[in-house]
Q: What sequence folds into this?
């Protein structure tokens, strides 16, 4: 039991003295004081199953990751201007998981910083600043990332698209203009990219980059139709642009069949951005690119990053990669995710409210609709369910433009027994909603 401040004291301090746009989960916020595996514990010691924290990827406070960080923190933490084994050992290990063409690493501290740097690399390489972005996407909190995120610039407080930012259709096989995971729908969605490239060409311009999450997270836990990225990448490259895969949410084995989600679409990006799970909660991130793009960034201006690539972050990053391998977490994500999706699909047969169940590995979306034909989003029922899950000690949140998708992306320490628990509570909740 924790003897710290009361929830009321923390809440009132936050309101007065912390950023005014901080949000809190739940009508009655939780005070969380400890984490282990796939569970979080409140100040009373009550365990909550964490279904949504894809940052603490190998499990909250994994002892090997904690030990690696503690040991290096007690020895040395500096910037990258001295020679140190950790930096090269870690880069070597991380690059070994990537296609051969992607052979240069740059270390930063957050997913936003990684995408920010990716845009700079692309601009230097292509001599263009025209950016193609997928509708509904989110890529981070910096100026350039907000400008690249329709979720933000088209949302509350947003200022619309900058003149050099061009939206392409969200390739959503459930709710989009072209339904189903077919090569026809893949090509039809890719046509929207072709159209934007043609509009640019008509003005004598060409794209700098096309940025796309390898599976859509914020836009609605969407699995794009097979073949979509192959077609889009070909078009973007033919027009002189580069292809950025944002793996900040979906990388590091979560999809089960592969280490990187772009591999499920059979493509090799020109730039890959990594974040969230990379340090299991320690703030670190990376950009991986080709020799040619890294060469083009050598303009005479140094890129210096005070914390990026420090020996502590590298020690932690190495431990995360080791744990993924030693504990076979990618395979675990595949098996547990498949089992989980099967259970959810069975429930879908019983409850009309479940319009769609989709996912790869332990990245799953359950889309709730009032009516399966009209697909009217069941937004209120989805938020009711999230509170119901909390009362039953399961934490998750909603996703998508209508907030009608249950977003499931737990730490990979999540088990089939945890999946059963979730399905039991979902069934009880859906029954109450009948
Ligand atoms: N890209 C994606 C796909 C993300 O989901 C996020 C964070 N939600 C970011 C980038 C930004 O990462 P960070 O918050 O670490 O800056």
A:
């Amino acid at each position: 039991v924790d003897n710290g401040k009361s929830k009321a004291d923390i809440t009132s301090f936050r309101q007065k003295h912390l950023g005014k746009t901080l949000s809190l989960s739940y009508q009655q916020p939780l005070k969380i004081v400890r984490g282990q595996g796939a569970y979080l514990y409140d100040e009373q010691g009550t365990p909550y199953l964490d279904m949504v924290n894809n940052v603490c990827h190998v499990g909250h406070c994994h002892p090997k990751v904690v030990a690696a960080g503690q040991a290096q923190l007690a020895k040395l933490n500096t910037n990258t201007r001295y020679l140190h084994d950790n930096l090269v050992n870690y880069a070597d290990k991380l690059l070994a998981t990537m296609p051969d063409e992607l052979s240069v690493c740059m270390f930063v501290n957050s997913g936003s910083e990684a995408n920010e740097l990716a845009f700079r690399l692309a601009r230097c390489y292509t001599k263009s600043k025209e950016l193609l972005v997928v509708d509904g996407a989110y890529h981070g909190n910096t100026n350039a990332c907000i400008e690249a995120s329709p979720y933000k610039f088209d949302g509350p407080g947003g200022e619309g698209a900058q003149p050099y930012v061009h939206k392409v259709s969200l390739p959503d096989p459930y709710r989009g203009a072209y339904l189903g995971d077919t090569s026809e729908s893949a090509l039809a969605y890719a046509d929207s990219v072709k159209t934007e490239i043609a509009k640019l060409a008509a003005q004598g311009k060409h794209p700098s980059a096309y940025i796309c999450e390898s599976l859509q997270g914020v836009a609605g836990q969407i699995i794009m139709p097979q073949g979509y990225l192959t077609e889009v990448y070909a078009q973007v490259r033919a027009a002189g642009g580069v292809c950025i895969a944002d793996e900040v949410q979906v990388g590091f084995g979560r999809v089960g069949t592969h280490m990187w989600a772009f591999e499920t679409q059979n493509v090799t990006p020109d730039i890959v951005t990594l974040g969230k799970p990379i340090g299991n909660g320690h703030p670190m991130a990376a950009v991986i690119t080709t020799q040619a793009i890294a060469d083009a960034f050598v303009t005479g201006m140094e890129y210096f990053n005070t914390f990026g690539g420090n020996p502590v972050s590298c020690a932690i990053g190495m431990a995360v990669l080791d744990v993924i391998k030693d504990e076979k977490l990618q395979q675990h994500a595949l098996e547990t995710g498949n089992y989980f999706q099967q259970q959810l699909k069975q429930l879908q047969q019983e409850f009309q409210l479940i319009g769609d169940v989709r996912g790869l590995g332990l990245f799953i979306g359950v889309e709730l609709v009032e009516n399966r034909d009209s697909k009217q989003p069941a937004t209120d029922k989805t938020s009711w369910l999230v509170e119901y899950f909390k009362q039953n000690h399961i934490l998750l949140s909603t996703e998508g433009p209508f907030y009608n998708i249950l977003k499931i992306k737990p730490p990979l320490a999540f088990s089939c027994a945890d999946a059963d628990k979730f399905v039991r509570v979902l069934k009880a909740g859906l029954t109450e909603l009948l």
Summary: The pocket of 4'-deoxy-4'-aminopyridoxal-5'-phosphate is lined by residues 110-112, 115, 138-141, 213, 217-218, 246, 248-249, 275 (CB under 6 Å). The chain has two domains: 7-58+328-433, 64-326. DSSP finds 13 helices and 15 strands in the chain.
